[in-house]
Design goal:
The chain is mostly helical. 67% of the residues lie in helices and 0% in strands. The longest helix is centred in the N-terminal third of the chain and has 34 residues, at 25-58.
């Protein structure tokens, strides 16, 4: 109970609502921590399983190892995101409501928690959609010696980097489940890494596919869909 009151903040009294089944702030904290940690473990275990599947199919690594200094820096950023995503609930359980793990109280309520869970489910469902659309073309890093088919169906008919988008959706869910400065920091670092990585990938793909990729860029958003453009991509793909 001491840990529970710490997480709520100093001087917070337990109310009748706190004693209600499944609606207690204490149970809310435990549920939030469990969902966030489980979502991180499931997501990154899924990445490893997909990497293993692709490796077995193509006979080599799907470019897991960083190839230059910039990619090593990006990997460091993503490693921070992964560790923070998995580890923040454990830190909250250990140190309570101390900075940067103090809850932003206006966001600490059950409707927001429910929205967070839905975002995590939506984000992971979207990620599986991406894996299915990419198939054996899925890669983590860039190998300038290879040329795969340009994938423009599924979510790639709407945005150019849907995997990063759905990661952002899941991390936005983490922010709603654990509304702390640290959660916002994780999301911000991820967004920066994703933006830099997306620019690198687009530069590489322009060089590989030339005018075809430039046409694709005009019809899609980088991270967010462009209204009315999905049909244009389908028509363009059918003509190609």
């Amino acid at each position: 109970m001491a840990q529970y009151k710490e997480a709520l903040g100093p001087g917070t009294a337990e109310t009748d609502q706190d004693k209600a089944p499944f609606g207690t702030m204490k149970d809310g904290i435990l549920l939030r921590e469990a969902v966030v940690t489980l979502s991180a473990v499931v997501y990154w275990a899924g990445v490893l399983l997909n990497a293993y599947r692709v490796r077995r199919s193509i006979g080599r690594s799907p470019n897991l190892r960083p190839s230059n200094t910039k990619e090593w820096i990006l990997w460091a950023g993503w490693l921070f995101v992964i560790i923070g995503w998995i580890g923040q609930p454990l830190m909250i359980a250990k140190v309570g409501a101390s900075r940067p793990f103090m809850f932003i109280q206006p966001l600490y309520n059950h409707p927001v928690m429910t929205a967070g869970i839905l975002l995590i489910l939506l984000g992971y469902g979207g990620t599986l959609w991406c894996y299915r659309s990419l198939g054996d073309s899925w890669r983590i890093g860039i190998n300038r010696k290879e040329k795969n088919a340009l994938v423009t169906d599924g979510p790639y008919g709407y945005v150019r980097h849907p995997i990063y988008l759905f990661q952002m959706v899941m991390l936005s869910g983490v922010v709603l489940l654990l509304p702390t400065v640290f959660s916002l920091m994780i999301l911000l670092i991820h967004m920066i890494c994703s933006y830099v990585k997306a620019l690198d990938e687009e530069g590489f793909l322009k060089g590989v596919y030339g005018s075809a990729y430039l046409d694709y860029i005009k019809m899609t958003g980088r991270f967010l869909p462009v209204s009315g453009r999905g049909a244009s991509v389908r028509q363009w793909r059918d003509r190609s």
